Amino acid sequence: MEGIEFLHERNIAHMDMYHDQVVVASERHVAFHKEVQAGKAYIIDFDRSKYLKSGPGIQHAIDLPETYCKPPLGMTRFDPCSWDVYCTGILFNTVTKVSLLLGQCSSWTDSPVTDIYSERHIPWVVRRYIKWLVGNERGCTRICSCRPSARRARQS
User: Fold this and answer.
1) Does the reported pTM lie above 0.90?
2) To the nearest 10°, the Cα dihedral for 148, 133, 81, 16?
3) Residue 14, burial from CB neighbour count under 10 angstroms (0-12, 13-18, 19+)
4) Residue 23 phi/psi, 5° resolution?
5) What domains are there in the chain, each with its CATH number?
6) Residue 82: helix, strand or coil by DSSP?
7) Model pLDDT for residues 116-139, shown as the tens digit of each residue
8) Which of 24, 45, 85, 89 has the fewest CB atoms within 10 Å, counting from its CB?
């Protein structure tokens, strides 16, 4: 969420946040890029990003580009900052579930995913935070108030 807040403070919306858009730097990355810190997460792939005329809480909805994350309610226009927060919530949900699966499996030949994964294994505070980020979409066509800003989400 820190990276999304950083972008939004500069009036940039990533517009395509999902699990393949975040890389955790390794020592190998540091060898090629001296400004990179091992163990730190980086947002990558800005080909769908938009520079916004207005910042979070001011920017009206824009047309969504084709993205990995599917828009709720079949929406085609979205407040771009709110869209980043929504997609980051979906990303957190995916990462949380995969982390739980990897922690529960001793090998990939264990029980099928449906047998070992359950919502109840996700701590309630994590479930609530993810739900808050994803929000309760009402189909806003202007400035969205269905979920927190990236700054507000980081303060919590």
Assistant:
1) no
2) 170
3) buried
4) -125, 135
5) 2-155 (1.10.510.10)
6) helix
7) 555 667 889 999 999 999 999 888
8) 24
